[in-house]
Specification:
Helix content: 25-40%
Oligomer: single chain
CATH topology of the largest domain: Lipocalin
Shape: globular
Order of helices and strands: HHHHHHEEEEEEHEEEHE
Radius of gyration: 21 Å
Number of helices: 8
Number of strands: 10
CATH architecture of the largest domain: Beta Barrel
CATH class of the largest domain: Mainly Beta
Largest sheet: 8 strands, antiparallel, barrel
Number of domains: 2
Distance between the termini: 52 Å
Structural class: alpha+beta
Length: 298
């Protein structure tokens, strides 16, 4: 293996640790945790086989494949002796792993995932102003985000639908910062930072599969006074969301964040018909007016 191959493999292992355990470096993941990741990957591989109706038994990973074959026999051996002669790992196995995470193959992963969850690139700083950590602490948890996700020309929409994304906001144990991870279509994910100053909440997100940054801003009027009330529940937030669309045009959407119960939380993005029972009635009332829920930038 060349050093470049090692770097690519480290990128994959860092990505897996972050994706499944929110650990950003492979050295922080234990042998037991690598076995857990293998089990999670095998579940995804099996589910994909069933979904595609493939009769042949899936080629599953061994319980200790990640730890013994990739960590011990590749990465650790290289770091112990950079001149060691190491064979390359099975490319088919690596492609199998990344395919169930939304990539075409291992090469596609290497080319698209230049850095796994690089939160350090995402910053909103206001000098001489303290963050509203009381508000940020109340944001920690699972959320669903609802928007209309309209086509470029809303009149061309084939069906009235509402898009629901899954999100988790959590506080980093190492830096004390507040991070957010959000599901996207076709298995890709967004990751970002959450900051709050006074009554305002700011979110910046990047995608882990393509260059697409999203920005969110919300205001909770009189938040300081509201948060003093022990009975006050922060269950819903309204955001203006801006990003560059897939046809390279800037778009802005009205999005509603609603707190979700972790026990029955579904971590995927789902597009629902507008009359679906899965859409809370209060959300539907706020999003049913097409014209008021997409900002015309022209």
């Amino acid at each position: 293996m060349k050093k470049e191959d090692i770097l690519h493999l480290e990128k994959l292992m860092n990505f897996l640790g972050s994706h499944f355990l929110k650990k950003n470096h492979w050295e922080d993941v234990t042998k037991t945790e690598w076995s857990y990741i293998c089990a999670e990957l095998n579940e995804l591989i099996t589910a994909e086989h069933l979904e595609k109706g493939i009769k042949k038994a899936p080629d599953l990973l061994g319980t200790n494949y990640l730890y013994e074959h990739l960590i011990i026999n590749k990465l650790k051996k290289f770091h112990q002796n950079e001149k060691a002669i190491l064979s390359r790992p099975n490319l088919a196995k690596l492609s199998l792993i990344v395919k169930v995470l939304g990539y075409s193959n291992y090469i596609d992963f290497i080319n698209s995932n230049t850095e796994s969850f690089n939160f350090n690139d995402l910053k909103i700083d206001m000098n001489n102003v303290s963050q509203n950590t009381t508000l940020l602490d109340r944001l920690v948890g699972c959320w669903y985000s609802y928007n209309r996700n309209l086509p470029e020309n809303p009149t061309q929409a084939r069906e009235e639908r509402i898009w629901r994304s899954a999100m988790e906001i959590y506080k980093s144990e190492t830096t004390g910062e507040y991070f957010i991870e959000r599901s996207g279509g076709d298995h890709h994910k967004y990751f970002g930072k959450v900051t709050a100053y006074s009554d305002y909440v700011f979110i910046i997100m990047n995608s882990n599969t393509f260059i697409r940054q999203r920005h969110f801003i919300s205001r909770i009027k009189d938040s300081k006074e509201k948060l003093k009330n022990p009975d006050y529940k922060l269950a819903e937030l309204h955001f203006i969301s801006t990003c560059i669309s897939f046809n390279q045009e800037p778009i802005a959407l009205f999005e509603i964040f609603r707190k979700a119960d972790r026990k029955n939380f579904i971590s995927d993005s789902i597009s629902f018909p507008i009359d679906s029972d899965e859409i809370p009635e209060s959300i539907l009332k706020q999003l049913e007016d097409t014209e008021s829920n997409r900002i015309d930038y022209r």
